[in-house]
Amino acid sequence: MKVLIVGGGGREHAIAFSVAKSEQVDEIYAAPGNAGIAEYAKCVPIEVMDFDGIRQFALDQQIDLVIVGMDDPLVGGLVDILEDAGIRTFGPRRDAAILEGSKAFAKKLMKKYGIPTADYETFTEAEEALAYLEHARFPIVLKADGLALGKGVLICETLEEAKAGVSAIMVERRFGEAGKELVIEEFMTGREVSVLSFVDGNTVRIMTSAQDHKRALDGDQGPNTGGMGTFSPSPFYTEEVDAFCRKHIYQATVDAMRAEGRPFCGIIFFGLMLTEEGPKVLEYNARFGDPEAQVVLPRMKTDIIQVMEACIDGRLEEIRLEFEDNAAVCVVLASGGYPLHYEKGYEIRGLEAFSGKEGYRCFHAGTKVKDGKIVTNGGRVLGVVALGKDLKEARKNAYEAASWVDFEKKYMRSDIGKAIEEAE
């Protein structure tokens, strides 16, 4: 098979790593890819929103399978364009990708079908949102309706903070068109857990659990980011939690989308909050989480191409997903100042340390090759991943490996997975 991966971040590097292990695959391409993905794939200079360019390249190269990794092209309808051209594509069509593309749609879907989530209201006018806040309970959560690179969620402790948040999202349009509509929802407390799943429109197959760290600074302080690190599995995702979620959240969501005439084929990311009242949905994503994919995919034993093909063909019930009985921790190495202001173009040193080391991976998120050297090219630069027999060992290994790599203004959180020790 010839496979084309659309995207150029750490998630797509993890996907390329998994695809390269499949005996069915002969050639891998990536559009646009990055310096790390180039280890497995031929990177082509086509941007993810150049739908015509991607379609034409897939036709010219006789690509057998396109895997769309990123949210923007999914929500924009790239899968529709490719499938309509007769190109087999893994990912949800536009009418299903709205599950991530509109938080208001997702909340209304959960309310209609009784899927547990936080209480909420939606607003299209800033004045109405501000009036609602005058009588709200705090803390409270503001969410830009559309895609905002994982940063369009504000947790507000006071009325003053919330008013400033409404202004930033709806008036100043800090997140662009994503802020045309605003979701205001109750603040839930508990443990967060991320669960990825494969879906074929009817059947859902759950992957192993993970936990992300969204805030930029230690102790879950600072602004929200795209994710500063993850670990898998989550010790808080028990068999009891799993049984509840399979019945009331996972299958219920797939059935709801089908009932709405929007059958979902691809990846559904379930962001969960384990509250005192039971598990509730924080958010949906319509693709692999980033950096959750970096700790989940290295633990997956099942051939990813077999699973994706089964999803496209509607025979996912035939597939049994298997994962290694181990643990993984990912520590994100970011550019100093991320997610606000940061600089690019610094040489990355020490990447060769990962060569040939079993149980260690360095997934590239924001890198490129310049003058024969690999340099920083984004806010999140690398995802350092290490395996271990348990989470404590994996965490120790990951932080050791993070010290192998260096670049100017390198920054990382020091407490990824610290909750593991606190739970034991």
From TrEMBL:
UniProt entry tagged with the keyword Ligase: yes
Enzyme class: ligase
UniProt pathway annotation: Purine metabolism; IMP biosynthesis via de novo pathway; N(1)-(5-phospho-D-ribosyl)glycinamide from 5-phospho-alpha-D-ribose 1-diphosphate: step 2/2
Ranges of residues in domain ATP-grasp: 107-313
EC number(s) given by UniProt: 6.3.4.13
A Gene Ontology molecular function term of the record: metal ion binding
Keywords assigned by UniProt, alphabetized: ATP-binding, Ligase, Manganese, Metal-binding, Nucleotide-binding, Purine biosynthesis
Cofactor(s) needed for function: Mn(2+); Mg(2+)
Keyword Transmembrane: no
SUPFAM superfamilies for this protein: Glutathione synthetase ATP-binding domain-like, PreATP-grasp domain, Rudiment single hybrid motif
Gene Ontology biological process terms in this record: 'de novo' IMP biosynthetic process; purine nucleobase biosynthetic process
Catalytic activity: 5-phospho-beta-D-ribosylamine + glycine + ATP = N(1)-(5-phospho-beta-D-ribosyl)glycinamide + ADP + phosphate + H(+)
Sequence similarity: Belongs to the GARS family.
Annotated protein name in UniProt: Phosphoribosylamine--glycine ligase
Organism of origin: Suipraeoptans intestinalis
